Amino acid sequence: MPDKILVWIDPGFLQFGIAKFLQKKIEADFYAIVDLNHHLEKSFKTQKIVNFKKIWYYWENFRKNKPNYNLEYLKDFEQRYDFKLWTLVYSERIFYKYNEFYKLSSDEILQIITNDCQFFEKILDEINPNYLVIKGADFHRSHLLAEICNARGIKVLMLYSSRIGYKCSISSKYDQIDLSSVTVKQKTIPNKTFPELRDYLKKFNKTQHMSAIKSGGFGYSKIHKFRVLIHWLTKTFDKQYRETYDHFGITRYKVIKNQLSHIIKRTYREFFINKNFQKEIPPTKFLYFPMQVEPERNVLLGAPFYSNQLELIKNIAKSIPIGYNLIVKEHYAMRLKGWRNTNYYQQLLDLPNVILLHPSIKSNDVLKRCSMVLTINSSSSFEAAFYGKPCIVFSDTSYSHLSFVHRINGIEELPSVIQKFLKIEVNLDELNQFVNDFDNSTFTFDEFQFEQEMFDRIHNGFLIGDTISMDDLNSFFEENRQVLEKVTVEHINKMAQYSEYTKIK
Known about the structure:
- By secondary structure, the chain is an alpha/beta fold.
- 48% of the residues lie in helices and 12% in strands.
């Protein structure tokens, strides 16, 4: 009997391209859940690229089924899957805190969650797939589906960009090394010194590379952005578009007002940052907290109980020993979000043992000078070890098991853990072993570059529109055949690794 493969398809279309080449290489039945707006649904329904046995459209289901929430069903769901739904709710940027256009009520949220849970359970009950092919989950709906599949024993093939640029991994959970990769490949890499390990990092400089990729409207001409925005306002933004919960409360007036406000706020906030943030690293002993972009999945889904970075920094500042300062550096990518408001920054500036560094300062320069790194789950925590610095993290990561990394499980343990880890030295042999395991579980693929090239080709760069050509999309897949086939083979290898690991266990 052939395997059943369920594919999650979003506007990035990477998993759709993978499905195209998977179908040519293995014998399996393919199914799809499509997460596209109603315009793109119409375009997708004409596709003949992949022969899916059945397709479900996420937003079509939402439009057709708006049930009253069922508390008894949701209670039972939590029991069966050992999964807390309110944690998921607070991790969704549309539901909480970051929605600039509409405040969803508790009843509306519970209706959405009920609909999602029932929708996914119905699909999984119907087809009972062997595998789920999905990208690293950014929103509650895809994260929820992956968690249900994991709980049911359905093998999740989640593709995500690793801590080191140009490298990706496929795992059952985001930012976790599957033991199957390490066990099966068993490729040994000679041990490196700290300088050699830092050279290894430089080969895959993620920050430098990402800064060169056009993103969020940056890197495009004003004329192009204006044309795309006008098209979106006049063609994409119709009545049916506004009926989905991710667009509740949006009007054309609010969009234009929001964009103008965003530009003004960014300009004013940049002036505040340039005036008040230190542009040189002070000659003092310090611990380092690199701030993370918000909203971002690593913060919201990865560390739901530590997502308030302002309060977290205050708690760290209370916990560090006399003789040390806490250096906080804003993430340069927050410029894309218009920076944080000045009151937020002022509260940090008012903390007596906290120093705010200008975002233009290179993180590597700070890592060289600091005594320790504390972070929610920033890549800086991973890089810290390459500079011989211990680290404290506030979420589970692929490296949080290392002896020189401590995963905080409660704020009250911060003072004692900080005191202890200031005396910890990075074990070079252990770090080399982790790098060895990391290499065994990753492969070279520039996911961000691929997605941006696809958006430039299909979505006018940055705004998801109202129509796409399936022929053009297929041409893009064919033009990138070599890359996509490589990623497809990695998925096939992962399937084999799961099978082999099951036998080994």
